Amino acid sequence: MLPDLLLPMRIPAKRIRTLIALAALALSATPAMAQVNWRMTTEYPQNNISGIGLTTFADRVAARTNGFVTVTSAFDNELKINSGEMPRAALDGRIAGGDAFAGALSGLDPVLGLSTLPFLVQSVDIAHAGNARARPLYEKAFAARGLKLLYLTIWPATGLWSERPLDGADDLPTLNLRAYDANSSEVMRAAGANAQFLPMDKALAGLKDHQLNAFLTSGDGGAGRKLWDFLPHFTAINYAMPVSIAFVRSEAFAGLPEPMQREVLAAAAETEQSQFALLAHRTTENYARMRDNGVRIAEPAPASLIAALRKAAAPVIAAWEAQAGADATAIVEWARQQ
């Protein structure tokens, strides 16, 4: 390696840092030497907003590190690791990390369920500002479990895909519905639906077996999975604008030379910015694609349906606030005032 690094007392600290940086850059310029490959996964298709983020991050990392760090991406739950399982899979070394739907991680820490709380966020700008406030809490929750947060992806607003049109609150008891986290499952059951929290792969199996006749997900989540083959109606209830969180094992990140760590974080920041820019037109593009495939979109949603869901949501939010702590509750209060 570098013999003079064995004598740190004889060399100024600034010089040591320079030598380390040069060594890292030399390695990055030599493809045959000590490259790092991270295997990362998402349970969503490559053309879904989560898949696009993972592809963007892989491209940016490779470019910024000159190939020293590369990412091998697995999409559409190819590895049979759903969002809720990703943290354990990363810590066990089966993957370096992934892009996980945050609501599915709320069992790790209640704060990770913040973005899926119902009817708090009704615009892209509020979603962006709210997640900027929440990000330090997300980072802390991940770090406590040996994971390094890389970037956030804000999803388009959640709606209800259904087999039949929803004319009002009276239709809720007719729904056998897939919810996307524990809180949304509780809200939908309280409103009268037969709802259960299912990972996407199990939910799709239930849909194909005709055990389900409705999905709670965005136009993005539904379009990526072609839900219109089974559920040709979409009711724009604007339930939430949830996030997915990309992360790697802290140990994997810490093992990189410091200059490469900086480049990885820069690539992550660029990806987050790109994902937010994508969001601006994503709903319009999804709706166009949905209509092209025969989906009937109800917007605005029936007033009685929204009223029933809001009523059911209130105690769920209160229970979450009791668990999540003062910092997280302050963000909820801020969102209510917007």
What is the averaged pLDDT score? 91
User: What's the number of structural domains?
Assistant: 2
Q: Look up the CATH topology of the largest domain.
A: D-Maltodextrin-Binding Protein, domain 2
Note the quaternary state here.
single chain
Report the C-alpha radius of gyration, rounded: 22 Å
Structural class: alpha/beta
CATH architecture of the largest domain: 3-Layer(aba) Sandwich
**Order of strands side by side in the largest beta sheet?**
7-6-8-5-9-11
- The tally of beta strands, per DSSP, is 11
Termini separation: 57 Å
CATH class of the largest domain: Alpha Beta
Beta strand %: 15-25%
Percentage of residues in helical conformation: 40-55%
How would you concisely characterize the structure shown here?
This protein has 338 residues and is of the alpha/beta class. It is 46% helix and 17% strand.
Question: Can you walk through the features of this model?
Answer:
The structure is a single chain. With 338 residues, the chain is of the alpha/beta class. The chain has eleven helices and eleven strands. It has two domains: 37-156 and 244-282, Bacterial extracellular solute-binding protein, family 7 (D-Maltodextrin-Binding Protein, domain 2); 158-241 and 285-336, Bacterial extracellular solute-binding protein, family 7 (D-Maltodextrin-Binding Protein, domain 2), CATH 3.40.190.170. The strands form two sheets. It has a six-stranded mixed sheet. The protein has a five-stranded mixed sheet with strand order 2-1-3-10-4, with helices on both faces. The protein is globular, with a radius of gyration of 22 Å. Mean pLDDT is 91; it is low at 1-11 and 26-33.
